[in-house]
Design goal:
By secondary structure, the chain is of the alpha/beta class. Helix content is about 45%, strand content about 20%. It folds into three domains: about 350 residues, TIM Barrel (Alpha-Beta Barrel); about 120 residues, Malate synthase G - maily-beta sub-domain (Beta Complex), CATH 2.170.170.11; about 130 residues, Malate synthase, domain III (Malate Synthase G, Chain: A, Domain 4, Up-down Bundle). The chain has an eight-stranded parallel β-barrel with strand order 3-12-17-20-21-22-23-24, surrounded by five helices. The protein has a seven-stranded antiparallel sheet with strand order 4-11-10-9-8-15-16. Strands 1-2-18-19 form a four-stranded antiparallel sheet. Strand 1 and strand 2 form a beta hairpin. Helix 21 packs across helix 23 and helix 22 crosses helix 24. The longest helix has about 40 residues. The protein is globular and about 80 Å long. The two termini are about 15 Å apart.
Length: about 725
Amino acid sequence: MVITEKYGLKINTKLLDFVNNEIIPGTNIKSEAFWISFGKIVHELAPINKKLIQKREDIQKKIDEWHKKNKGKLLNKKEYLQFLKSISYIVEEKNNFNIETANVDDEIAVIAGPQLVVPVDNARYALNAANARWGSLYDALYGTDVIPGEKGKGFNEKRARTVIAYVRKFLDETIPLENGSWDEISKIKVKNNDIVFHLDKKEIYLKNKDQFIGFNGEKEKPTSILLKNNNLHIDIIIDPNHFIGKLDKASISDFIVESALSTIIDNEDSVAAVDAEDKIKCYRNWLGLMKGDLTANIEKNGKKFVRKLNPDRTYISKDGNKINLHGRALLLNRNVGHLMTNPAIVLKDGTEIPEGIMDTFMATLCALHDFINKKNSRTGSVYIVKPKMHGPEEVAFTNTLFEKVEEALGIEKYTIKVGIMDEERRTTVNLKECIRQVKNRIVFINTGFLDRTGDEMHTSFEAGPMIFKGEMKKSTWLSAYENWNVDVGLSCGFSGKAQIGKGMWAMPDQMANMMVQKIGHPKSGANCAWVPSPTAATLHSMHYHKVNVFEEQNKIKSRSKAKLDGILDIPTADRPNWAIDDINRELENNAQGILGYVVRWINQGVGCSKVPDINNIGLMEDRATLRISSQHIANWLHHGICKKDQVMEVMKKMAKIVDGQNKDDPTYQKMSDNFEKSVAFSAACDLVFKGRVQPSGYTEPLLHQKRLERKASN
């Protein structure tokens, strides 16, 4: 590794060259001036960053001691609350206020819909997600279990007709005709600036004529019809020569629906980036997205092609003007949190750079290219999602960091917008005061319930053994937390200005189940919710046609607000006298998820993947799910629910099963061939057996250490 010593920094030379030769050209930024400002700001902020991390540990020690002191007693909520206030875990809530964020894109402020999260280090996935702004409703239904039965080999006409009927029923519900059904129409045309349907030899119109926006082709024979409902577009493709169009009496071949309105390009939980080499890869892909020139070479079904960003979509309005619609999802960049450092740059005192500071500088520097072409943000904003912050003080630090980056790059104050992941307990209980710290740049709060569960476990580690993971979803604190997030967001004036988000659907192969359950997110007042794939985004978009989120938010404003008392309810077991078989089954389930995820992270540098669980059901796993599983076993070990030998036996048993599940992967390296020498197995064990002492229960420190060890051995 070659290092360049400049600006009071030791910079990996490849990173330095990448910034100077690839990012900066075209930005009107001078390399020398950038690095001088960068070095000054990093050295100013790094010590503050370090103090904030230490404060987390100091507070955690006090909470641990309190629980030890009160061991065996029923939790007295009043005493507990007073204690948390006395140590500044909960701060005083001040007067009411409304957020004042300006220059926010419509995809954030006034359109409700699905949101994708995709690892930045995979160009193919990033492009797929960016292009998931529009998706085929027919393909999404035909290819998933939303439509029951097997697809079979080749084209299944019966299944296709079931799909067509499904979509017609959906349209009857969301874009109804003045009379009759979409299933009955035989022709569509444009007449007198209106859309006209032929039905039973009659000409009929939409019940709400304003839902017709535009078209392509000739009025008598349009090739597409553009409709709008709840601010979301549907493009009806008409093609009598298409094999689907031939099945349809109105010659409709597809419905292309607005799907992933926004996408989080993730540098955090779904990415394994531990050094300069990894970070350059991440930054380069983000740069390509901001310039609009990112490509990926794809081979599919024996064909090779180049994937690139989709163009905008154009239509003729009903009064003859041109309509231009954004062809790609609005992209947000999720930086890492405050905890981790990275060896890519070393400071004067010999410490590594706080990775979150580096991320903000690089993400914003890359985004300067979008200020020129406005292909991402039409308002000239940079959207950065900030995860794993603990309380208002850390949010204020993020605000300071953003201000200094704006000054260094010569851009207007509040250009950088922030999304707060509400995924740490100290942020949840102080959410209003967290928002206050960034009231001029906040665009997003999201309940990251997976990480939030991990923090719930770690914060109350000494309170007792935690309930089974499956029972967590029914626990008092979780429902209070989800409602609290919406209540606080609405009370701070988020509606019509910023996103209130909900978490991920983690089972990408269970779309039928998703369609039943995930409509609960828009009904709960969330104007975006996370999905695991472009297909899932297309399907989930149907929920936002059925539910007007902003109307739901108005209803929710008058309901009884979630109580802090519910959030402080600790999910410990009252009488943990569980059967040994039940304990072992829970241990095996946890160990399976840990090993299946960690082995790919350590050996292959894969930060997010579909991991088969103990029942061979594919689950999207990232560091958040890993945090839960490792903290759960660690907690049970600490409280004597299981023994170390017992857990080690389970880990070895499940390692063999994970090895078997990956037998078809030619790049996979078995753990069970040599447990003592397997770095991946060692990492998985450390996460469990050293889980008690990991900062906030995070998995990153151990994962990074072991991944660097693994890379060094190659």
